Protein backbone atom coordinates (compact mmCIF):
# COMPACT_ATOMS: atom_id res chain seq x y z
CA UNK A 1 0.00 0.00 0.00
CA UNK A 2 2.87 2.38 0.75
CA UNK A 3 4.31 1.82 -2.71
CA UNK A 4 0.97 2.56 -4.32
CA UNK A 5 0.53 5.71 -2.24
CA UNK A 6 4.01 6.83 -3.18
CA UNK A 7 3.22 6.19 -6.85
CA UNK A 8 0.06 8.27 -6.65
CA UNK A 9 1.97 11.05 -4.96
CA UNK A 10 4.60 11.06 -7.66
CA UNK A 11 1.95 11.17 -10.37
CA UNK A 12 0.22 14.01 -8.61
CA UNK A 13 3.43 15.98 -8.40
CA UNK A 14 4.12 15.44 -12.09
CA UNK A 15 0.63 16.59 -13.01
CA UNK A 16 0.97 19.65 -10.82
CA UNK A 17 4.33 20.45 -12.36
CA UNK A 18 2.71 20.64 -15.78
CA UNK A 19 0.68 23.63 -14.62
CA UNK A 20 3.65 25.46 -13.11
CA UNK A 21 4.73 28.23 -15.42
CA UNK A 22 8.40 27.96 -16.33
CA UNK A 23 10.64 31.06 -16.22
CA UNK A 24 11.23 30.79 -19.96
CA UNK A 25 7.50 31.15 -20.63
CA UNK A 26 7.52 34.59 -19.00
CA UNK A 27 10.21 35.77 -21.41
CA UNK A 28 8.29 34.25 -24.28
CA UNK A 29 5.13 36.02 -23.16
CA UNK A 30 6.99 39.33 -22.99
CA UNK A 31 8.33 38.82 -26.49
CA UNK A 32 4.90 37.88 -27.84
CA UNK A 33 3.39 41.00 -26.28
CA UNK A 34 6.15 43.13 -27.77
CA UNK A 35 5.78 41.43 -31.15
CA UNK A 36 2.05 42.15 -31.21
CA UNK A 37 2.79 45.85 -30.84
CA UNK A 38 3.43 46.88 -34.45
CA UNK A 39 4.74 50.31 -33.52
CA UNK A 40 7.29 48.80 -31.13
CA UNK A 41 8.41 46.33 -33.80
CA UNK A 42 8.92 49.18 -36.26
CA UNK A 43 10.95 51.03 -33.64
CA UNK A 44 13.03 47.92 -32.93
CA UNK A 45 13.75 47.40 -36.63
CA UNK A 46 14.82 51.02 -37.08
CA UNK A 47 17.07 50.86 -34.02
CA UNK A 48 18.58 47.62 -35.31
CA UNK A 49 19.38 49.27 -38.64
CA UNK A 50 20.91 52.29 -36.91
CA UNK A 51 23.07 50.06 -34.72
CA UNK A 52 24.24 48.09 -37.76
CA UNK A 53 25.15 51.31 -39.57
CA UNK A 54 27.01 52.67 -36.56
CA UNK A 55 28.94 49.41 -36.04
CA UNK A 56 29.80 49.15 -39.75
CA UNK A 57 31.13 52.71 -39.85
CA UNK A 58 33.09 52.26 -36.63
CA UNK A 59 34.65 48.95 -37.72
CA UNK A 60 35.55 50.37 -41.13
CA UNK A 61 37.40 53.22 -39.43
CA UNK A 62 39.31 50.79 -37.23
CA UNK A 63 40.29 48.73 -40.26
CA UNK A 64 41.24 51.81 -42.27
CA UNK A 65 38.65 51.13 -44.96
CA UNK A 66 35.96 53.35 -46.44
CA UNK A 67 32.49 51.82 -46.76
CA UNK A 68 30.61 55.12 -47.08
CA UNK A 69 29.96 56.52 -50.58
CA UNK A 70 32.29 59.46 -49.85
CA UNK A 71 34.65 60.56 -47.13
CA UNK A 72 32.29 62.41 -44.74
CA UNK A 73 35.00 64.89 -43.69
CA UNK A 74 36.55 65.60 -47.10
CA UNK A 75 35.61 69.00 -48.49
CA UNK A 76 35.65 70.12 -52.11
CA UNK A 77 34.50 73.70 -52.52
CA UNK A 78 33.96 73.19 -56.24
CA UNK A 79 31.11 70.79 -55.40
CA UNK A 80 29.37 72.97 -52.85
CA UNK A 81 25.56 73.05 -52.70
CA UNK A 82 24.84 70.32 -55.23
CA UNK A 83 21.17 69.42 -54.92
CA UNK A 84 20.20 65.75 -54.37
CA UNK A 85 20.87 63.64 -57.48
CA UNK A 86 21.94 60.15 -58.50
CA UNK A 87 25.56 60.82 -57.51
CA UNK A 88 24.87 62.59 -54.21
CA UNK A 89 21.60 61.23 -52.87
CA UNK A 90 21.19 63.90 -50.20
CA UNK A 91 23.21 66.59 -52.00
CA UNK A 92 26.33 68.34 -50.70
CA UNK A 93 26.80 71.06 -48.09
CA UNK A 94 28.51 74.42 -48.32
CA UNK A 95 31.95 72.78 -48.20
CA UNK A 96 31.14 70.20 -50.85
CA UNK A 97 30.84 67.30 -48.38
CA UNK A 98 28.36 64.54 -49.16
CA UNK A 99 25.37 64.95 -46.82
CA UNK A 100 24.32 61.29 -47.08
CA UNK A 101 27.75 60.07 -45.98
CA UNK A 102 27.84 62.58 -43.14
CA UNK A 103 24.41 61.48 -41.87
CA UNK A 104 25.50 57.84 -41.87
CA UNK A 105 28.71 58.78 -40.09
CA UNK A 106 26.75 60.87 -37.58
CA UNK A 107 24.73 57.79 -36.60
CA UNK A 108 27.80 56.47 -34.80
CA UNK A 109 28.22 59.63 -32.74
CA UNK A 110 24.55 60.14 -31.85
CA UNK A 111 24.02 56.56 -30.69
CA UNK A 112 27.32 56.38 -28.80
CA UNK A 113 26.62 59.64 -26.97
CA UNK A 114 23.07 58.53 -26.17
CA UNK A 115 24.08 55.14 -24.78
CA UNK A 116 27.11 56.47 -22.87
CA UNK A 117 25.15 59.35 -21.35
CA UNK A 118 22.35 57.03 -20.23
CA UNK A 119 24.92 54.65 -18.74
CA UNK A 120 26.33 57.49 -16.62
CA UNK A 121 22.97 58.85 -15.47
CA UNK A 122 21.57 55.36 -14.89
CA UNK A 123 24.48 54.13 -12.78
CA UNK A 124 24.59 57.24 -10.59
CA UNK A 125 20.82 57.69 -10.45
CA UNK A 126 20.18 54.08 -9.40
CA UNK A 127 22.70 54.33 -6.55
CA UNK A 128 21.31 57.65 -5.29
CA UNK A 129 17.66 56.64 -5.69
CA UNK A 130 18.17 53.24 -4.06
CA UNK A 131 20.05 54.76 -1.13
CA UNK A 132 17.43 57.47 -0.61
CA UNK A 133 14.47 55.11 -0.92
CA UNK A 134 15.82 52.36 1.32
CA UNK A 135 17.44 54.42 4.07
CA UNK A 136 14.88 57.22 4.24
CA UNK A 137 15.12 59.95 6.87
CA UNK A 138 17.79 62.62 6.55
CA UNK A 139 19.63 60.70 3.84
CA UNK A 140 16.50 60.61 1.70
CA UNK A 141 15.78 64.28 2.32
CA UNK A 142 19.32 65.42 1.47
CA UNK A 143 19.56 63.40 -1.76
CA UNK A 144 16.10 64.28 -3.05
CA UNK A 145 16.44 67.99 -2.28
CA UNK A 146 19.59 68.00 -4.41
CA UNK A 147 17.69 66.21 -7.18
CA UNK A 148 14.85 68.76 -6.88
CA UNK A 149 17.34 71.59 -7.29
CA UNK A 150 18.65 70.03 -10.50
CA UNK A 151 15.13 69.41 -11.82
CA UNK A 152 14.21 73.04 -11.19
CA UNK A 153 16.57 74.05 -14.00
CA UNK A 154 15.64 73.06 -17.60
CA UNK A 155 17.85 70.16 -18.66
CA UNK A 156 19.26 71.87 -21.75
CA UNK A 157 20.22 74.98 -19.74
CA UNK A 158 21.87 72.81 -17.11
CA UNK A 159 23.72 70.90 -19.83
CA UNK A 160 24.93 74.19 -21.32
CA UNK A 161 26.15 75.26 -17.86
CA UNK A 162 28.08 72.00 -17.48
CA UNK A 163 29.53 72.40 -20.98
CA UNK A 164 30.63 75.94 -20.11
CA UNK A 165 32.48 74.54 -17.09
CA UNK A 166 33.88 71.42 -18.78
CA UNK A 167 34.59 72.82 -22.25
CA UNK A 168 33.61 71.72 -25.75
CA UNK A 169 33.99 68.22 -27.14
CA UNK A 170 32.32 64.82 -27.46
CA UNK A 171 33.49 63.48 -24.09
CA UNK A 172 32.34 66.66 -22.33
CA UNK A 173 28.93 66.39 -24.02
CA UNK A 174 28.54 62.82 -22.76
CA UNK A 175 29.31 63.87 -19.19
CA UNK A 176 27.04 66.92 -19.33
CA UNK A 177 24.06 65.03 -20.76
CA UNK A 178 24.61 62.17 -18.31
CA UNK A 179 24.67 64.50 -15.32
CA UNK A 180 21.47 66.38 -16.16
CA UNK A 181 19.50 63.11 -16.43
CA UNK A 182 20.52 61.73 -13.03
CA UNK A 183 17.50 63.19 -11.10
CA UNK A 184 14.98 61.38 -13.33
CA UNK A 185 16.46 57.96 -12.62
CA UNK A 186 16.97 58.73 -8.95
CA UNK A 187 13.31 59.68 -8.48
CA UNK A 188 12.03 56.67 -10.42
CA UNK A 189 14.21 54.21 -8.50
CA UNK A 190 13.37 55.81 -5.16
CA UNK A 191 9.63 55.64 -5.83
CA UNK A 192 9.87 52.00 -6.95
CA UNK A 193 11.88 50.99 -3.89
CA UNK A 194 9.45 52.72 -1.53
CA UNK A 195 6.66 50.59 -2.99
CA UNK A 196 8.43 47.25 -2.47
CA UNK A 197 10.79 47.64 0.51
CA UNK A 198 8.06 46.75 3.02
CA UNK A 199 7.30 43.41 1.35
CA UNK A 200 7.80 40.19 3.28
CA UNK A 201 10.79 38.98 1.28
CA UNK A 202 12.69 42.17 2.16
CA UNK A 203 11.97 41.69 5.87
CA UNK A 204 13.04 38.06 5.57
CA UNK A 205 16.32 39.15 3.99
CA UNK A 206 16.91 41.52 6.91
CA UNK A 207 16.14 38.84 9.48
CA UNK A 208 18.67 36.35 8.10
CA UNK A 209 21.39 39.00 8.31
CA UNK A 210 21.87 40.24 4.73
CA UNK A 211 23.81 43.47 4.33
CA UNK A 212 21.98 46.59 3.18
CA UNK A 213 23.79 46.63 -0.16
CA UNK A 214 22.86 42.99 -0.82
CA UNK A 215 19.22 43.60 0.09
CA UNK A 216 19.04 46.55 -2.30
CA UNK A 217 20.88 45.05 -5.27
CA UNK A 218 19.91 41.38 -4.92
CA UNK A 219 16.35 41.51 -3.57
CA UNK A 220 14.81 44.93 -4.33
CA UNK A 221 16.25 46.24 -7.61
CA UNK A 222 15.54 43.03 -9.60
CA UNK A 223 11.85 43.57 -8.82
CA UNK A 224 11.85 47.13 -10.18
CA UNK A 225 14.19 46.54 -13.13
CA UNK A 226 11.35 46.74 -15.66
CA UNK A 227 10.68 50.39 -14.79
CA UNK A 228 14.39 51.18 -15.09
CA UNK A 229 14.71 49.45 -18.48
CA UNK A 230 11.77 51.36 -19.94
CA UNK A 231 13.07 54.70 -18.66
CA UNK A 232 16.57 53.98 -19.97
CA UNK A 233 15.18 53.23 -23.44
CA UNK A 234 13.26 56.49 -23.45
CA UNK A 235 16.30 58.21 -21.97
CA UNK A 236 18.40 57.39 -25.02
CA UNK A 237 15.97 59.35 -27.21
CA UNK A 238 16.23 62.32 -24.83
CA UNK A 239 20.04 62.05 -24.90
CA UNK A 240 20.04 62.05 -28.71
CA UNK A 241 17.92 65.22 -28.67
CA UNK A 242 20.19 66.89 -26.10
CA UNK A 243 23.23 65.93 -28.17
CA UNK A 244 21.68 67.52 -31.24
CA UNK A 245 20.77 70.64 -29.25
CA UNK A 246 24.32 71.06 -27.96
CA UNK A 247 25.68 70.43 -31.45
CA UNK A 248 23.30 73.00 -32.89
CA UNK A 249 24.68 75.56 -30.43
CA UNK A 250 28.25 74.63 -31.31
CA UNK A 251 29.00 73.12 -27.89
CA UNK A 252 29.00 69.43 -28.80
CA UNK A 253 31.04 67.55 -31.35
CA UNK A 254 33.53 69.84 -33.03
CA UNK A 255 34.42 70.00 -36.76
CA UNK A 256 35.25 68.25 -38.94
CA UNK A 257 33.37 65.33 -37.36
CA UNK A 258 29.79 64.79 -38.50
CA UNK A 259 26.97 65.15 -35.98
CA UNK A 260 23.34 65.77 -36.84
CA UNK A 261 22.81 68.76 -34.54
CA UNK A 262 26.03 70.38 -35.69
CA UNK A 263 24.96 69.84 -39.31
CA UNK A 264 21.68 71.63 -38.57
CA UNK A 265 23.45 74.49 -36.84
CA UNK A 266 25.87 75.10 -39.70
CA UNK A 267 23.16 74.84 -42.37
CA UNK A 268 20.59 77.14 -40.76
CA UNK A 269 21.90 80.07 -42.80
CA UNK A 270 21.00 78.24 -46.02
CA UNK A 271 17.40 77.37 -45.16
CA UNK A 272 16.10 79.03 -48.34
CA UNK A 273 18.97 78.45 -50.77
CA UNK A 274 19.70 74.83 -49.80
CA UNK A 275 16.91 73.54 -47.52
CA UNK A 276 17.93 69.90 -48.01
CA UNK A 277 21.02 70.52 -45.81
CA UNK A 278 18.61 70.97 -42.88
CA UNK A 279 15.83 68.59 -43.89
CA UNK A 280 17.85 65.38 -44.00
CA UNK A 281 19.68 65.78 -40.66
CA UNK A 282 16.36 66.81 -39.10
CA UNK A 283 14.68 63.68 -40.46
CA UNK A 284 17.52 61.54 -39.08
CA UNK A 285 17.04 63.01 -35.58
CA UNK A 286 13.26 62.63 -35.78
CA UNK A 287 13.34 59.00 -36.91
CA UNK A 288 15.91 58.01 -34.25
CA UNK A 289 14.03 59.67 -31.40
CA UNK A 290 10.71 58.27 -32.60
CA UNK A 291 12.15 54.74 -32.85
CA UNK A 292 13.38 54.75 -29.25
CA UNK A 293 10.08 56.20 -28.02
CA UNK A 294 8.08 53.53 -29.84
CA UNK A 295 10.29 50.77 -28.45
CA UNK A 296 10.09 52.24 -24.95
CA UNK A 297 6.28 52.28 -25.08
CA UNK A 298 6.27 48.70 -26.30
CA UNK A 299 8.63 47.58 -23.55
CA UNK A 300 6.40 49.26 -20.96
CA UNK A 301 3.48 47.09 -22.05
CA UNK A 302 5.59 43.93 -22.43
CA UNK A 303 7.13 44.24 -18.96
CA UNK A 304 3.80 45.03 -17.28
CA UNK A 305 2.00 41.75 -16.41
CA UNK A 306 -1.40 43.48 -16.61
CA UNK A 307 -0.78 44.57 -20.21
CA UNK A 308 0.58 41.29 -21.60
CA UNK A 309 -1.37 39.23 -24.06
CA UNK A 310 -3.18 36.19 -22.69
TrEMBL record:
Highest taxon in the source lineage: Bacteria
Record has Transport as a keyword: yes
Pfam families, per database record: BPD_transp_1, OppC_N
Matches recorded under Gene3D superfamilies: MetI-like
UniProt GO BP: transmembrane transport
Cellular component annotations (GO), alphabetically ordered: plasma membrane
Keyword Transmembrane helix: yes
Biological source species: Candidatus Desulfosporosinus infrequens
Entry's family note: Belongs to the binding-protein-dependent transport system permease family.
Mode of membrane association: Multi-pass membrane protein
Leader sequence residues: none
Protein name as it appears in the record: Putative peptide transporter permease subunit: membrane component of ABC superfamily
Subcellular location: Cell membrane
Keyword annotations: Cell membrane, Membrane, Transmembrane, Transmembrane helix, Transport
InterPro entries: BP-dependent_transpt_permease, MetI-like, MetI-like_sf, OppC_N
Residue span, ABC transmembrane type-1 domain: 107-296
Amino acid sequence: METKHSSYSDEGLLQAAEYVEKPESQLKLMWETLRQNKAAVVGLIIIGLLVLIALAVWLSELMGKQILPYDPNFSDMSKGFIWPNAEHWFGTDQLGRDVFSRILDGTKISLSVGVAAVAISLSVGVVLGATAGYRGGKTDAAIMRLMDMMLAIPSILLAIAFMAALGKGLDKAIIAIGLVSIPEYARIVRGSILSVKENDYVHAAKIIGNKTSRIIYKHILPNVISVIVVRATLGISSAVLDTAALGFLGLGVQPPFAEWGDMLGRARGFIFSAPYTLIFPGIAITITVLAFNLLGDGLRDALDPKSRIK
